[in-house]
Amino acid sequence: MDAIRNFFRAAWSSAERLEGKTVVITGANTGIGKETAIDLAKRGAKVILACRDIDKAQAATKEVIESSGNENVVCMKLDLADGKSIRGFAESINKDEPRLDILINNAGVMVCPYGKTADGFEMQIGVNHLGHFLLTYLLIDLIKKSTPARIVNVSSMAHSFGSINLDDLNSEKSYDKNKAYAQSKLANVLFTRSLAKRLEGTGVTTYSLHPGVIKTDLWRHLNGPQQFLWKMASPFIKNSAQGAQTTIYCAVEPSLANESGGYYSDCAPANCSAAGKDEEVAQKLWELSCRMLSITWE
Ligand SMILES: NC(=O)c1ccc[n+]([C@@H]2O[C@H](COP(=O)([O-])OP(=O)(O)OC[C@H]3O[C@@H](n4cnc5c(N)ncnc54)[C@H](OP(=O)(O)O)[C@@H]3O)[C@@H](O)[C@H]2O)c1
Predict the structure, then answer these.
(1) pLDDT tens digits, 98-110
(2) Mean pLDDT for the chain?
(3) Which of 79, 197, 206, 273 has the fewest CB neighbours in a 10 Å radius?
């Protein structure tokens, strides 16, 4: 229904400016993250590209500066598959940045073969959910000092196929790469809801979103037949600049200033799955994430 309604709506655009504001975007060296960086830099923000590969990040930073005409764009090393790297990144931001107005948790891995992060978490839940959970926890005080501020979590419609396996979040008993991706994207939706509840009245608002089906490097782990189907469908699939629009909408749209915890698609509010609204699972996931990361976040 959302998709049909949105098909007939005019494309979203906004002249909102971001001078004096600072934005962190994870996984901004390519795909949706890089296009988001270009757009927010054009609006005048200081943009920090938080990326795991510093060579790729430097090349992307140059491109963002050239495309936006904004020199106030930098990159920093952040590997979300390594708690030490996340802590180091957050420490530098907290020390050097007087404010953080918009945090965009965009980085992601999809349907990769079984692997573990440096801290022993299954790679998809580790990077897509736990890494961003820890990052947000470490930056939350700075974000609270920069209100009105926003936290945007890039999820996926794939969350609808997911469930949270509280007994085996790391898929150690059995690993299905599709289920693990869907679980991690559902975790993004639930984290956004839980975070909104905890941040009520602080001036920090949260958003999760589906960016669309977008031609990016994310699809690198598809198998042979899937790659073939993907190639056949690719003329009908959106490019990264189109794919960045809902992220940008959640980051800047003035009418969303008083909304928090919701899910968006095609630059509009959208319905997430019933599992994405399950307060009990959201609370249990929050507690489990804290235990796994050895942090206290009430
Ligand atoms: N493309 C789609 O159709 C689609 C659909 C629904 C949702 N999404 C979501 O959109 C977001 C962006 O994806 P995309 O399509 O733009 O994919 P992409 O082009 O593959 O970009 C993903 C970014 O995440 C980074 N990343 C991966 N692992 C990381 C780690 N351990 N630490 C830090 N960064 C890491 C990648 O870095 P490297 O370049 O170094 O690998 C890359 O910069 C993801 O959260 C994805 O789940 C995408």
Answers:
(1) 999 999 999 999 9
(2) 96
(3) 197
Number of domains observed in the structure of the chain: 1
Nearest CA to ligand 1 atom 37: 27
Going by DSSP bridges, is the β-strand pair 73-77/102-105 parallel, antiparallel, or unpaired? unpaired
Predicted confidence (pLDDT) per residue in 149-201, tens digit:
999 999 999 999 999 999 999 999 999 999 999 999 999 999 999 999 999 99
Whether 285 is in a domain gets the answer yes
Q: Which atom of ligand 1 is nearest to the CA of 105?
A: 45
pLDDT at 10: 77
Cβ of residue 194 lying under 6 Å from some atom of ligand 1: no
Domain span at residue 103? 19-293
Which pLDDT score, from 0 to 100, does residue 108 have? Answer: 98
- Enumerate the β-bridge partners of residue 122: 116
Domain holding 79: CATH number?
3.40.50.720
160: its two tokens: 């609808």
How many angstroms separate the CA atoms of 56 and 164, rounded? Answer: 33
CA of 217 to the centre of ligand 1 (A): 7
Q: What is the DSSP string of 212-268?
A: -SB-SGGGGG--HHHHHHHHHHGGGSB-HHHHTHHHHHHHH-GGGTT--SEEEETTE
CA distances from 243 to 30, 119, 216, 234 (A): 12, 31, 9, 14
Structural domain includes residue 12: no
The verdict on residue 49 lying in a domain is yes
Q: Which atom of ligand 1 is nearest to the CA of 32?
A: 16
